[in-house]
Design a protein that fits this description.
The structure is a single chain. It is built from eight helices and seven strands; from the N terminus they run ααβαβαββαβααβαβ. It is globular.
Amino acid sequence: MSAPPGPGLRRSVRMFRVFLREQTDPDLFYRAQAEDTLEQVSRYVDVAGRRVLDIGGGGGWFTEVFRGAGAQCFLVEPEAADPAHTREPRGDERAERHAEAIRAGRLAPGATLAGDGTRLPFRDEVADLTFSSNVFEHVPDPAPFLDEMVRVTRRGGLMYLSFTVWLSPWGGHETSPWHYLGGRRAAARYQRRHGREPKNLFGASLYPRYVGPALRLVRGRPDIDLVDALPRYYPDWMSWIVRVPAVRELATWNLLLVMRRTGSP
């Protein structure tokens, strides 16, 4: 199934502007990102009445938007496991507000389950849509994560997976652009400059992910049909970037994979 034409450059500029405010106004950024994502997902499936699993959705911004559109959405978040032991914010205001949202269940009350993306607390084929935004680069091994997405998605259901590409200018997250000199070197520089480790620590909670290997992982599975591979925040006419080796690793920024689970085991 091909998606209808989507928004163009104006939408990309708007998303880039809110991205620049992620550190100072995370609530604005995540809400704008969630609303934009709903529009993007809706090009492939109407979420109203669908069962959706939001894997690793943090404070629940995506879950809130999906539920507002009529979906039966559940948030799976490791940090919800023990509110008393939510990861220390380390003086990072963004992380602190994120943790508070999880502890309070403020954004997804009654819809949040403790769980890990590689061991989802759901039976097989329970979801019409499984959704994961910017979690893929935070798991040490991407294959088991994808295994679980496939397992809990019904045959014919969709999977929406996006991640920040390591060699893009923002691949190192808050340590960017120094990650081009190496992830550990960038983390060490961040600690010297800020007096604390970065929230996304290379080798512990941040791992390099690339476009080429991700496409090969998906295309190598008989139980997945790759519907679309897109630069998530770019206009549709820039989708050619994903098809060009080397260029795609530097220019994609955030790779979006829209997949359908097939009937193959």
